[in-house]
Amino acid sequence: MAKGAFAESGADLQLDGIKKRFPGFTAIEHLDLTIPAGSFFALLGPSGCGKTTTLRLVAGLEEPTEGRILIGGQDVTRTKTYQRPVNTVFQSYALFPHMTILENVAFGLRRRKIGDPVGKAHEALRLVELDHLAARRPAQLSGGQQQRVALARAIVNRPALLLLDEPLGALDLKLRRQMQLELKSIQTEVGLTFVHVTHDQEEAMTMADTVAVMNKGRIEQMGSPEVLYELPSTVFVANFLGQSNLFAGPVQETGSETLGVDVGGNRIQVPRSRAQRTSGYVTVGVRPEKLTLHASPETIPSGANSLGPGRVTDVSFSGVSTQYLVDVPGVGTIVVFAQNLASGPVAQLGGEVWVAWDAAHTFVLADEPP
Ligand code: ATP
Fold first, then answer.
1. Which CATH architecture has domain 243-364?
2. Are 30 and 18 in contact (CB under 8 A)?
3. Distance between CA atoms of 90 and 68, rounded to whole angstroms?
């Protein structure tokens, strides 16, 4: 794909102390956020957490109750929607049915009397690899192709900022996965700033270089997908992005490098650098795929964290891996994901096991345990 006319870069977006109150409901409690130019940013959160409201504020479809919005350093808080360097792609992409694909993409350029609308529309269609279908009408395209036309229509305007509100929501799972990779590669190609709203954690992690996890009108945590996954800072993030095993217990030992936390009578070591709290009662976590199962404590490497003995109460096979549930008295149910290796299953239903993991994978959350 050639960069051609799309080589212009995006602008950064800054939300400064944003609050949005609707009559009787505060949708955004407080938002301070800077999204660097040229990045692919995902706002991730459950339904009703305020994602769409945030996008609508940036697009100028809503006015903030408090705070400022800056695009490329310019304060646009009171700027009209059509004067902002922003385009939005929604889940329902509403192409004009009576126009060809080319006319659909060129429409906005013609209306704004921008030169060479046809050439620019072809270029945008080449970018989404649909130029060969330029003469067709929307009804003659698949859902994924229509979505790509909607994207071409947004990109052709060369907005400094492209807002995507669940744009893949209407597609089936396979097409969705394919479009995620395509969207990412188009973003890399055009270098614009993409702000993508989704409630699908896998989608956010696959595409974005930075993810902000939103909950109840606030950002709980923001960072690269790897950091959010490896080092969640709150219970909400630990459970919303993948699965976590969370245990509560008192800190009993505070070393310069590690903390020792008592979990049901077992000493669990946590690197200090991975602990958001270092004293009192804390929530300790570890991801299920970091755990290994052992038929006896002798096979556990020295220095590893371990809990047990416990009993395997459920085994569910899912192709590449198997999920084991292990009940450890005084601790609770632990979820373990084990890769299915040629050597066969690592534990049997009803069997006695110890759960172990490298202490380096343990984290302590910022929340106070319940
Ligand atoms: P979803 O994933 O379901 O689209 P969302 O995270 O995008 O959810 P928003 O659409 O931003 O959520 O809505 C946030 C909250 O604000 C919701 O509780 C919603 O009911 C409320 N809300 C949104 N618009 C209005 C409005 N015009 N008046 C009153 N409340 C509103």
1. Beta Barrel (2.40)
2. yes
3. 24
Which sequence spans correspond to the domains of the chain? 4-230, 243-364
Topology agreement, domain 4-230 and domain 243-364? no
Rounded to 10 deg, the angle between the 143-155 and 117-127 helix axes is: 130
Q: HSE-up of 310 (CA within 13 Å, CB side)? A: 28
For ligand 1, atom 1: residue with the closest CA: 47
Strand residue runs (E) in 208-331 = 210-215, 218-223, 245-254, 258-263, 266-271, 281-286, 292-294, 305-318, 321-328
What is the CATH topology of the domain spanning 4-230?
Answer: Rossmann fold (3.40.50)
CA 183 to ligand 1 centroid distance, Å: 26
- Beta carbon of 53 within 6 Å of any ligand 1 atom: yes
Span from the CA of 301 to the centroid of ligand 1 (angstroms): 50
Question: Quick one: three-class SS letters along 99-156?
Answer: CCHHHHHHHHHHHCCCCCHHHHHHHHHHHCCCHHHCCCCHHHCCHHHHHHHHHHHHHC
Instruction: List the chain pLDDT tens, one digit each, 370 residues.
Output: 333 444 457 899 999 999 999 999 999 999 999 999 999 999 999 999 999 999 999 999 999 999 999 999 999 999 999 899 999 988 777 899 999 999 999 998 998 888 999 999 999 999 888 999 999 999 999 888 898 899 899 888 888 899 999 888 877 888 888 888 888 988 888 888 999 999 999 999 999 999 999 999 999 999 999 999 999 999 999 999 999 999 999 999 999 999 999 999 999 999 999 999 999 999 999 999 999 999 999 999 999 999 999 999 999 998 889 999 999 999 999 999 998 877 777 889 999 999 999 999 999 999 877 6
Nearest Cα residue to atom 26 of ligand 1: 22
Residue 74: strand pairing partners:
71
